Amino acid sequence: MAADLDAMARRVIDGNHYMTLGTQAADGRIRLSPVYFTAARHTDFYWLSSPEAHHSRNVEEHPEVELVIYDSTARVGEAEAVYVAATARRIADDELDDVIGEAFHARAGAGAFTAEDLRGDADLRLYVAHALRWDVHVPGRHPLHGTGLDRRVPADPTQDRGRG
What we know:
By secondary structure, this protein is α+β, with helices and mostly antiparallel strands. It has a single domain (about 1-155), classed as Electron Transport, Fmn-binding Protein, Chain A (Pnp Oxidase, Chain A), CATH 2.30.110.10. The protein contains 3 helices and 8 strands. Strands 1, 2, 3, 4, 5, 6, 7 and 8 form an 8-stranded antiparallel β-sheet that branches. It is globular and about 50 Å long.
């Protein structure tokens, strides 16, 4: 049964371009920000941001973040979502060459950046959130896992339990 939930997590991550990034400000308030992302291995979620953006400053002070990835166009009762607990950080200039290839994929009309575009005094920087835990949203009407109430259930999109 876990294999279909793992597959759901992969499907949601692979099929969407935006995530909601939840960060914590110095005063304890939560800040939610929609960001365009690229996933690598279903464990690392990359996005670009200004280091001056509230959420970027929050990541510097409190690297523990929460992500939600979902298709907002899904019909009522058919929604699928992945909740990710992660630690986030800005990619250091000397690491850019190593990750730039996985941080940018040609999808949804997004342009690729070079490492040089993101170094030094650049206005944008590359950030990554590394997943620690995943949960999926299971609708109450789900044919296998439904209980009548929507709920979160642990999943692991890095597992391939249903194949092989």
